[in-house]
Amino acid sequence: MLTPILNELQLKLKIVATGPMLIRDGRMSSDEQRKKLVPNETVRQNLPDSIFVCRNTYADLKDKLNKNDINKLKFYLPRTSLRGLLRQQAESIMRMLSSDQEDPLCCNPFDETNCAERIEKALLRLHDRQNRRNRLSAVEIFNASCAICRLFGSTAMASRIEVDDGVPQGMFAYDERVHVAIDRFTGGSVPGALFKDFVLSGAFETEIRIRNFEIWQLGLLAYVLRDLENGDVPVGSGKNKGYGQATIVLENITLKYRGKHQPNQLLGMADFPEISARRYDFKKHELTQYPIESQVGNGLLSQEYVIQATPTSVIESRFWQVCAGVFNGIVRNAAGADSQRFQKLSELCISDGTIVAQQTENEEQP
Ligand SMILES: [Zn+2]
Questions:
Q1: What's the pLDDT tens digit per position in 72-112?
Q2: Counting Cβ atoms within 10 Å, is residue 19 exposed (0-12), middle (13-18) or buried (19+)?
Q3: What domain range includes position 15?
């Protein structure tokens, strides 16, 4: 991770479950675990087979389950689930844009093509050849990483994006859903076997922070947020049971820069000379419009702006349109990008409008 933090975007948003949602509590996933939590068989049989994940300690969870006080548990939406969701959707957008499915525009974090492993192999080759340096620099790792790892990080590189746990807002609807258990071997139902899920519907509030960002990364995020807003991204498990339908409400967005700059600018990493001089592969863009509503702070060390003060749809937001335009510019110029598929994405999406987004190589590049 680059230090210090030069720019930061904060998004406050609500994730709204429009139907039953279930993110399972892993402490209750096997029969054995359930028996340990609730030794009394009669009590246990009346409990759901799975419950929504909660913050309660093991002892507290045990106590509430034995008193059948499930409604009093402290449910939340784990940050790891939210982050995973954002990353997966970003990956599927990049794969959709790739003309060569054998060589997609992003790595697969679950196989040997993942950036960290690929970079590690390159390092071994370098080491064999030169045998004088056994470590890649942060700049080398960054420049060798794919678009997704540059934003979400990998085992070789820290993430630029940070997500808070989702905190329940207001009233929740609790529900127990009963399902017939299916025999995995025959595909038929198991006589007498029923599954009960304890599901929630309601809203969770969270915050996403992106630090040391490039403007195209915000553009990729704009598409991810649009898909979430459209309800195209299910949250949690049980999609085949119809769980996880959700949307988002973007409540407000603020932007911070370190140091003093021209007012009302959207500055990506390439716009900070102290860092672009270090040969990072940052993309520079010339923006003709700056989508910033107002300046709220102008201290000696930082400037702070409000981009959006009230809930605004992603599609209608000038800010996300500008960022998406920059991402479009990058994809259009990327080797391996499919222009027809890109057209498809463009049609669906936020229009470029009057934005001039040019991808120019950083002048400091070797
Ligand atoms: Zn990668």
A1: 999 999 999 999 999 999 999 988 888 777 777 888 888 88
A2: middle
A3: 7-23+77-93+101-311
Q: Tell me what pLDDT residue 228 has.
A: 95
Q: For residue 352, what pLDDT is reported? A: 44
Say if 341 falls within a structural domain: no
Long-range contacts of 57-63 (CB under 8 A, 24+ apart): 58/27, 61/25, 61/27, 61/37, 62/37, 62/38
- What separation in Å is there between the alpha carbon of 151 and the centre of ligand 1? 9
DSSP string, 320-355: HHHHHHHHHHHHHHSTTB-HHHHHHHHHHS---TT-
Highest mean pLDDT range out of 147-151, 162-166, 168-172, 348-352? 162-166
**CA–centroid distance, residue 80 to ligand 1 (Å):** 18
pTM, to two decimals: 0.86
In the reported structure, the alpha carbon of residue 106 is separated from the centroid of ligand 1 by a whole-number distance in angstroms of 5
> What's the 63 CA to ligand 1 centre distance in angstroms?
44
Tell me the CA–centroid distance for residue 139 and ligand 1, in Å: 15
What are 323-355's pLDDT values in tens digits? Answer: 888 888 888 777 677 766 666 665 444 444 333
Q: What is the largest CA-CA distance in the chain?
A: 72
Is 181 a domain residue? yes
Q: For the chain, how many structural domains are there in total?
A: 1
Which of 196, 161, 195 lies closest to 181 in space, CA to CA? 195
Question: Crossing angle for the helix pair 215-229 and 79-97, nearest 10 degrees?
Answer: 100
225 within 8 A of 187, measured Cβ to Cβ: no
Residue 348 Cα to ligand 1 midpoint, Å, equals: 26
Could you tell me the distance, in angstroms and rounded to a whole number, from the CA of residue 21 to the centre of ligand 1? 30
Distance 112 CA to ligand 1 centre (A): 11
Distance (Å) from CA 146 to ligand 1 centroid = 4
Distance 8 CA to ligand 1 centre (A): 22
Q: How far is the CA of 113 from the centre of ligand 1 (A)?
A: 8
- From residue 237, alpha-carbon distances to 15, 233, 240, 244, 291 in Å are 15, 12, 9, 7, 37
Give the C-alpha separation, 150 to 218, whole Å: 12
Distance 237 CA to ligand 1 centre (A): 25
